[in-house]
What we know:
By secondary structure, this protein is of the alpha/beta class. 21% of the residues lie in helices and 21% in strands. The chain contains 15 helices and 26 strands. The strands form six sheets. An eight-stranded parallel beta sheet has the order 17-16-15-14-13-10-9-18. Strands 21-22-23-26-24-25 form a six-stranded antiparallel beta sheet. Helix 14 (461-472) packs parallel to helix 15 (534-550). The radius of gyration is 26 Å and the shape is elongated. It starts with a strand and ends with a strand. 52% of the residues are buried.
Amino acid sequence: EPTDSRPFAPRATAVRHYLYENADDGPEAAPRTIDMEKDEDGVWETILPEALHETWYDFTVHGPEDPGNWFYETHPVHISDPYALVNDDAMGKSRVWQDGPPPDPLPGGRPPMEEVVAYEVHVQDFTDLLPVSEDEVGTLPAMTRTGLTNRHGESIGFDYLVDLGVNVVHLMPVQEYLHYPDDEWQEVFAEDSFAREMGIDRENYQWGYRTTHAFAVESRFRSRGSEPGAERDQFRALVEAFHQRGIAVIIDVVPNHTGENMDQRHLLLNFNVQDLPYHYRTDEDLEHIGPFGNEVKTEDRPMVQQWVVDQLVHWVEALGVDGFRIDLAGQIDKQTLHRVMEELPDDVIVYGEPWIAPSDPEVRANPDWAWYKADAPITFFQDDARNAFKGSPFDVGDPGWAGGGAGPGAREATMWALENRYAEEPESTRGISYLDIHDNWALADRYALDEDNNGLNGVDLTAMKIAGGLLFTSAGPVVINGGTEMLRSKGVAPHEEFEVEVAGGPVAFKGRDDTYNLRAPNRFLWDSLEPGSDAAEIRDYWRGLIALRMSDHGRVFRVARVPEGHYQWFTPGDRHLLGYLVGGEVLVVTNNGAWDRKITVDLPEGSWRRVANQDVVDLSGVPGPDARLSGGEQELGVPAGSFLVWVRE
């Protein structure tokens, strides 16, 4: 196929295209340099008749020394291609790449939003301690390696995830993102004891919310020793493997800011040079604004809007993904998100954060651009449900209803969250419910037993079970933070924040609240899954809750619109008690208090089988008192700290 390069630089006077044989060749070694031609839209183009698969390339962009310009005449750098399919890490050259065919689609189609049970997971965190070869640790191939067990013989890795029963895997960022070069990083951290303890003495570990090349797969996720570009094949193989097991794959995308201005640095990778004031929101001096160093300007910028749409369509069509979680989607203008939804296939799964507001006051004040929950163009994270179930992540003293909260309004807030009875959610699919996510404290640390809130030292299992029970019996889509179901804790991370000078500027370590660049606290501790352990107990309980939700009985939770009276409530005077009958098919009774209680419920006619108590969830039935019920009024015993479920047979 012909090779087509088309960087957008509307105020440039010239753009030169350099082709190389090797990634580390200097400009003087470029066998070909091409003066590109500009069209009426400010796009510079090179069309070469031959296929240049695996050829390396970059550009120089030339122009006047006007304010806001970072052209070659004042800043003589070569830039990479923001549309590159392969890049040499974040700061290197781009590579021409011809893809193979996309993965086969998900058999039976993608799950509708109301059916989504998503599992958020980071490739490196999930695979860091798997028993795979050194070449595969932390990589895409390790994510789908089958037959792995821990030292106790428990299934781990891919098999574990499949057995858990979720129907969507939500990968944290896999687009090429900023890492500081290893040699510069190791100059500071190679002999540092804190860095060694946190697993960051050899590399700049990141979650990836600093995209540099939105069309490329993160190059550090390919197996070591493989050729640059192999990460694309390995990603497609990952999608294929999950599809074959009936699991959709969505990815976390970060189109609201880019990696060029993280950590108080001003890197000249692509957009900063091509045209900074066009691509980013700026102040009156044409300087970047925004809490993350820059803020992508999608409003009034057709080519930036096109970049957002193009990258999402590319990941669906070329790489086979089934949807997206959009980071800080509230910073992206409403019209761009509407266009995204129009351009993507109707069955693609899309949800994102409705926060934070754009930093530009004109954008923030324009109702055609700014939005929040009530006028959300996409499904949004419903933090009100999170706060009701387990308490605000910003107030450790708030345990939520699952942690025993029974103050004024606590039970009522939980009822609203279960039913999605929010004004901004006329359909349950407008919001997605959750307990914890990669940000803030892990749920195991929120419910830790020690004063240090370190879940590695013991966790309130009752609170964990009730929290999971509430989430999985709520209406509409849900997402869980991968590892929460096995008590994954950030307990080894420090509480305090501090900065270190490295790689030409500061790097902030934010402690346990935000472990975005601390490797050890985020690892999956697979060997903690020992028969009889707390981790295995919660895994089994949550796995049972997921099975209940995905069963025929659980269809009462998987509804796009909650009918009037779908949740029937039983609310005795003791606010530690709550009962609810869902769709006439599933009865839930829970006691978050410290004493055994009784509750009176009224059931439809039929035979009712208990499938969950405070110890186990089993669809075949759970023995003991009240294991079988008949229709009509019933007085039930509700042990302290219990979550009980019956289904109508």
